[in-house]
Amino acid sequence: MKLCIVCLFFIILIVDITQARRGRARSRTKSKFQIGLPITGKYRDPESDQYYNNNNGAKITLASHFDFEYVLGHKIAFVCVARGNPRPIITWYKDGSEIFTHMYLNIHEWRIGTDKIKSKLEIDPATQMDAGVYECTADNMYSLDRRSFKTDFSIAFD
């Protein structure tokens, strides 16, 4: 009898542990948007290593702060500076979709020397719809580099 009770106890304990693990595994959700980090490191094949670690490849040298909280009705500005030979092209994305200039969103670019470019994204005035993940991507024929900026709004009480 005691053996049955001990066995039953262990069975209940094992079931509880496996269900707890399953619950934790299911609660983790993968984000729809991947936060862009610099692409560096070693790669399995030499072609990839040569592409991503090319000295002439596009590299972002300066970027805005990752986590940004803005006040509704005020201006949001992000900066991205990249270098490469040939000069990279900077493209802006919001929540994974490419964004373009419109009435309240402007993208300014400055060419610096023969191998640098500076791009600035400005939103004025900022609304609740402007919250999200922004990304600048610098791309030339040798490599691609990207940085992400997460934004959320706050309400200012005067």
Automatic annotation (TrEMBL):
InterPro entries: Cell_Adh-Cytoskel_Orgn, Ig-like_dom, Ig-like_dom_sf, Ig-like_fold, Ig_sub2. Keywords: Disulfide bond, Immunoglobulin domain, Signal. Residues 1-20 form the signal peptide. The keyword Cytoplasm does not apply. It comes from the Eukaryota. The keyword rRNA-binding does not apply. Residues 73-154 form the Ig-like domain. Transmembrane segments: none annotated. This is Ig-like domain-containing protein. It comes from Cryptolaemus montrouzieri.
